[in-house]
Each structure stands twice: as structure tokens, then as C-alpha cells.
Amino acid sequence: MAKPQMTTTGGNPIADNQNSLSAGPRGPLLLQDYQLIEKLAHQNRERIPERVVHAKGSGAFGTLTITHDITKYTKADIFSQVGKKTDMLLRFSTVAGERGAADAERDVRGWALKFYTEEGNWDLVGNNTPVFFVRDPLKFPDFIHTQKRHPRTNMRSATAMWDFWSLSPESLHQVTILMSDRGLPLSYRHTNGYGSHTYSFINAAGERFWVKFHFKTRQGIKTMTNREGEQVIAKDRESSQKDLYEAIEAGDFPQWDMQIQVMAEEDAEKCAFNPFDLTKVWPHADYPVIPVGTLELNRNPENYFQEIEQSAFSPSNIVPGISFSPDKMLQARIFSYADAHRYRVGTWYEALPVNRPKSAVNHYHLDGSMNAGYSTSANAYYEPNSFNGPAESDRFAEPPLKISGDADRWNHRDGNDDYTQPGNLFRLMNPSQQQALFNNIAEAMQGVPQEIVDRQLAHFDKADPAYGAGVRAALAAHGDGVTNNISVQEEPQAEPATA
Ligand code: NDP
Ligand code: HEM
């Protein structure tokens, strides 16, 4: 079969793609060699900014299949029938590293889901942990600064991390998970996913419920020790990418059980803790998990850049029957993500194939950079209009939400128990998991000033005296040498040249 004719981006046929246009065989080059100029200019624009967090990731497409009827809680079309299948995309990530970072790092794993439903895209942008480090979004950029590079040394700083965490006791729950065996997963396939925030469900009768989403791995939770992680990284920086890609290529499709926890709207007032606090879980005994469906990843992207790097997830993408909650962190994320995408990808990021809803999209946004042609009818380019342009419909209105209180900068630490749930987590670990936790913390604290270590130890003590005691013992056992166990091999010196 004849090969297609190679062209410039303007479609002009190319005669020679091996030799640039020069004055004579030795050059110099001619400015009119547009092919060369286009090629170099395009290369200069091949990268887009990496995500400010969660820059390193891997993704795959798949299906959510509904196995249980939850229509009494939500009218969302995606859950409307047992057996219903919805196409979806899942991008996993690590948080702190740059795009070239190694996968096998101790870090939270991102779990960003995009469901292409018949009523628009539903994005559930969670993590492999049910809680988070902070509960007020005003603290998020500072927290992220401690995870990224120190401005002067250009290295990551354990001092910054433990300084921030020790001054922010609400982080203890997530820090305990991060330093536990689950903080270094064997691969993405071996993690659970959590929506983490409390969201709301609205049913056909207009009743609101509070809901949490969970995805439990059928591959089993599998984790690595720090030493195992180091060995993996020494040989392979893309271990999670490789694992996911190869499993799917081999037809070994990873699966997760989707589950929810549900709370009646009025029960939020009666709950012993703030159910909208992202540093807390809802105990299973009080809010048992309810099965919903099966998530399966079964297709690798054809083009990583187009479908994964350009994918743009936002908690602002909700569908009828699923909505927000008063969680302050969620509220901020509703703003932050679409803003990030307009900067990172561009104004029309939702029109790119990977982000484009599979349902109809009708709005009145006009023009803008890289507008590839969403259009309404020629005369209906404003609203309201008399030319049959798209119109609102009140059947999608949410029931009113009661809120109250004085506008103020409320202290989110007042009356908040930051210790019981981390303590519960510590107490459910078996002795070897607890020992791994102690060791991981002791290693991560190497080089941190004693004053900061002591401040953090006081938090461990408050969660459980055995937690603090275990970390103290691990610190004493580790001494200073733990991160410096590399033996230096010197190269033999070359003999000086003689005259
Ligand atoms: P349960 O005993 O009912 O639940 C404990 C849950 O802890 C398990 O279902 C499992 O969650 C999770 N878990 C087990 N081992 C670890 C580990 N090493 N690291 C992290 N998570 C682990 O008790 P509660 O519901 O009262 O929760 C107790 C503690 O468990 C919480 O304080 C929280 O830290 C943790 N947890 C609770 C979750 C929840 O939604 N209630 C979810 C995840 C953790 P899973 O089945 O999701 O793997
Ligand atoms: C990525 C902001 C909290 C999970 C991002 C990005 C931003 C951001 C700007 C990059 C988006 C992009 O360029 O595509 C924030 C802010 C937060 C917050 C302001 C708090 C106020 C959280 C929490 C979770 C989370 C609590 C999980 C429960 C993720 C994930 C990604 C991400 C998974 C990667 C998405 C992808 O794969 O493209 N966040 N974040 N973030 N965030 Fe957050």
C-alpha cells in the first residue's frame, strides 16, 4: 500500500525530510526553509506546563458497571439501572514529584476518575487515602510548598515537612497513613481509591443524602518497604506505569468494587464529629459500606500525551443527582481545578477529545484561543433569545440547602479532635505494621531539628502513648546513619602525563 504523502501542518506536500535547504553543500541555511522552521518551532512547543501537583501519572480507560440498586439515594443517570455500563478514565499519580519522578516513592497516590455519563462528565478526583493533610484550603499551598523543593537548596526538605505537620495537628491522620505500609504501594493496581470528601446525593423525590465513595481493589492491597522501593527505583523509574500498561495489554484487567457510605441529610447535625471535615473518616460501624458496582480498566491510551497529559479532571464536574457538600476543601477545589486547566491546557480544554463529554454540550461561550468549534445556531449566540437556542430547565434544580452562621474566619482547630481517629488507625495495625510505621517515621525524620521532632512526638503520644514510644525507640535505634549507607567507590586516578 502506498504510504500517505507527508505534508507541512498547512497540508503542503514535503519533498525532502532528510536534508535542510542550504546555500551550497556546506551551508549556511536559507530562511525560506519553512519545513525546518516549522519543525523546530513545533518542537519548542511540545511540552505544556506540568500539573502543579500530581505531575507524574499513568492512566487508562475502562467501564463502571452497576451491580446494586442505589436509586433510593440518587437520581444520577449513571446509577439508574443495575447492569448499566459507563465509560470512564482513571488517572493515577504521585503527588510531590515532577513529571520525571520515579513511581516507587513513598507518597499519596492520586485517583482521578472521569465518568462520561449521559448527563455530562462526572469527575471524582480523589486519592488512595480516605482523608487529607489539612482541612482548610487556605493551608493547601503552604502544605504543597513543604512537599516540593526548598527554594535555596533545590532539594526536598524533611525539616519543612515535619515543621508544617507538627504545627498542623490535623495532618496526623494522613501522616499516619503515609508513613504506614500503605504509603508505598507496590503499584497503582494494588491501591484502593477514595473520593475522600463528603459529597451529596439527590434522589428523584428531591431528598438529599451525604455520601462518601470508596473503590476497593480486587488485586489486594500490596505494598513495599522503603528498601524494596529503593531497589525498584534503582532499576525502573516507571514501575507503576509499566505494571498498569502491561497488565492491561495482557488482558489482565484490574478491577475495583465501588462502595458508598450514606448519611441522611439531617444526621450531619447530630454526628459526633464534623462529617464535612476532610481529616476524618466515617467509621464503618456507624456508616456501613453499601455495594454499588465494579470498576474495570481495560484499555490503554493510544497516545499518552493526548489522552493522559491533556486530561483535565475537576471536582466542579458534577451531574444531576450528585453534588457538593459544605466541606471547605471541596469548595476551594471547585474553583481551583478548572482554573489550573485553563492555564495548563488552555481555555477550551473541555473540548479536547479526552475531556469532551459524550453527551450534548450546549452553551454560549464564544471565541477564545484554540476554539475548535462548539457552536450554537448562528442567531442564538446570547441568552435569552428567540431563535431556539439552548435553554435552562428547572428539573435540574437542587433542593435548597440550609446554611447558617456569621461570616468569619472560623478557627478550624477549635473543638476538633485530631487524635482519636489516627489513634484508631494505629490500634488496628498489627505489631509488624506498627513497627514499619515507627521505622518509616524515624527514617523520614533524619536530619530534622530536635525541637520539631519533639513537637511531632507529642502528637503521636496524644494519638496513642504506644505510638509515640515506638517512634522514640525507632529514632534511637536509627541514629544518624540511616540515609547515609552508601559506600563510595573511588575511581583509580589516571597517571599524570609526562613531557
Ligand atoms: P474499621 O475497623 O471498620 O475499618 C478499618 C479500615 O481501615 C479497614 O476497613 C481498612 O479500610 C483500613 N485499614 C486497614 N489497615 C490499614 C492500614 N494499615 N492503613 C490504612 N488503612 C487501613 O474501623 P473504622 O471505620 O472505625 O476506621 C478505623 C480507622 O481505619 C480510621 O480511623 C481510619 O484511619 C482507617 N480507615 C477507615 C476508613 C473508613 O472509611 N471508615 C477507610 C480507610 C481507613 P479499607 O477497607 O478502605 O481498606
Ligand atoms: C491535582 C489543587 C486537594 C487530589 C491538582 C491540581 C491542582 C490541585 C491545581 C493540578 C490540576 C491540573 O493541572 O490538572 C488542589 C487544591 C486542593 C487540593 C487547591 C485543596 C484545597 C486535593 C485533595 C485531593 C486531591 C483533597 C484528593 C482527595 C488531586 C488529584 C490530582 C490533583 C488526584 C491529579 C488529577 C489528575 O490526575 O489530573 N490539585 N488540590 N487534591 N489533586 Fe488536588
From TrEMBL:
Cofactor: heme
Protein name stated in the entry: catalase
Pfam entry (one): Catalase-rel
UniProt keywords, alphabetically: Heme, Hydrogen peroxide, Iron, Metal-binding, Oxidoreductase, Peroxidase
Residue ranges constituting the Catalase core domain according to the UniProt record: 7-391
Keyword Cell division found: no
Highest taxon of source: Bacteria
Family (UniProt): Belongs to the catalase family.
Stretches the record annotates as Disordered: 1-22
EC number, as in UniProt: 1.11.1.6
Catalytic reaction list: 2 H2O2 = O2 + 2 H2O
